[in-house]
Amino acid sequence: MKILRAGKHVLQEKPAASSIKEAAAALSFYRSLSINGVCAPIWAIAENYRFEPALLEAAKLVKELGDLMNIQVTAEAPMNSLNPYFSSEWRRNFNGGFTLDVGVHFIAGLRLVSNCEVSSVAAITHHVDPSLPPPDNVSALFQCENGCPGVFTLSMSSTSRKISFRVVGSKGTVEAERFSKDGQHGYTVSFYPFSGVNEELKAFVNDMVKATSEDKDVSGPDSRSSLVEGTRDVAVIEAMLQSSAKQGAPVVVEHML
Predict the structure, then answer these.
(1) What angle do CA 15, 240, 1 make, to 5 degrees?
(2) What's the pTM?
């Protein structure tokens, strides 16, 4: 907040916030910086999944599937001592720990690929690995605003790795699954190297250049990195945690505008 108040542009690591309540306060503060015709500094959330070429391509293909019938998101993402983020204390201090910190990636991917917002969830969580903060596993049913149902599973304590987004429609199926080829991480939609981090950084630099331009007709910051987008990812994970606390009762996802 001090950096933004000083007029400096900020690229913040995801998640956008630790809770919807915290995000709402941050959004209110940020919007207060744009007064009397003064533009606020750029505040971007570093969510690379919204910039992954393969997921962007999958999102285009999903638009051609006709009526969507179901969506399946599988994320087996081992978080152990071999992972460089395992000892990151600030990630452990969230309500939800790594499930929130890593889970927002897959929610961002889900929202992008499906071209739709998640409206409600019903979830059960489980804690298996004592070296990780609870919970480290989530199994959820969700429904999108267009009525399409889906299944979301996330395991931070798995020993295997699998990340896939699968959308079934009346005219076909699209699946983007992450794997490795020639030493590069990528997806099988049609192999795209895993490059979202580079793309989000390019977008942030481009936004900073535009912000200092004298051309008043340039477009605004890339919306994919906006605090609002990052907050919407947090909202879905938070709703899953709330549902689990209620023994799987459905919870409506709070949408930030």
Answers:
(1) 25
(2) 0.85
